């Protein structure tokens, strides 16, 4: 659902903001689709949307729940400073 919503927005010419992306990331993790997260984060980066503390929390929580500890490490190194 989240990915379809995103694509529908893009088709209508709407530009997602960081709040939208954070919601999409959370939903993707909740659906167990963590393998799609990197593409969404790359798209955020391409659009020039900065990661905030909520983005960081969503990524860490989602990757931990999915037991993707290598991704936790990469996220901390990239966004955690």
Main attributes of the structure:
70% helix, globular, 81 residues, mainly alpha, single chain
Short description:
This protein is mostly helical. It is built from five helices and no strands.
Class by SSE composition: mainly alpha
Tell me the strand percentage band: under 5%
Average pLDDT for all residues: 88
Total strands: the figure is: 0
Query: What is the gyration radius calculated from CA atoms?
Result: 12 Å
Q: Measure the end-to-end span.
A: 32 Å
Q: Could you say how many structural domains there are in total?
A: 1
- The secondary-structure element order is HHHHH
What can you see in these coordinates?
With 81 residues, the chain is an all-alpha fold. It has one domain (2-79). The chain has helices at 2-11, 18-30, 37-46, 53-65, 69-79. Helix 2 packs antiparallel against helix 3 (37-46), helix 2 packs parallel to helix 4 and helix 4 packs antiparallel against helix 5 (69-79). The longest helix has 13 residues, at 18-30.
Topology readout:
Layout: H1 2-11, H2 18-30, H3 37-46, H4 53-65, H5 69-79
């Amino acid at each position: 659902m989240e990915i379809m919503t995103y694509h529908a927005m893009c088709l209508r010419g709407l530009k997602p903001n960081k709040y939208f992306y954070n919601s999409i990331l959370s939903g993707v993790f909740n659906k167990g689709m963590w393998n799609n997260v990197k593409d969404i984060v790359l798209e955020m980066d391409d659009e020039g949307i900065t990661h905030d503390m909520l983005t960081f929390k969503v990524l860490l929580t989602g990757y931990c729940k999915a037991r993707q500890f290598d991704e936790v490490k990469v996220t901390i190194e990239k966004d955690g400073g």
